[in-house]
Specification:
By secondary structure, the protein is mainly beta. It contains one helix and seven strands. The longest helix has 13 residues.
Length: about 100
């Protein structure tokens, strides 16, 4: 799976996430994902919560809710958010380093 691919949970296919791990990390047993939420589901902090267009409408990347999951429970889609690389990196930098 490529980084920034939109993925779904097998058990809850209506929940979408963005894959944050780089290729090959899944060989260690887990990958890191962050939920894609509706704009009405979270109080948006501009630098921390990139709002991006997706096939499901605009979604907020909730980086502070990231987590590790085993790859077997996710279904990758054909959709990617790679063009929002800068916004995603900026949000992760704010989360971990306060920049």
């Amino acid at each position: 799976m490529d980084p920034y691919t939109i993925v779904r949970l097998k058990s809850h296919p209506d929940h979408t996430f963005i894959l944050l791990s780089y290729p090959g990390v899944e060989t260690n047993g887990t990958v890191v994902v962050a939920p894609l939420l509706g704009e009405d589901q979270i109080a948006i902090v501009e630098t921390l919560h990139p709002v991006v267009p997706t096939p499901m409408g605009h979604r907020v990347i909730a980086v502070e809710r990231l987590g590790a999951v085993v790859p077997e429970i996710i279904i990758p889609t054909e959709d990617t958010l790679i063009e929002y690389d800068y916004l995603i990196h900026r949000a992760l930098s704010r989360l971990f380093f306060g920049n």
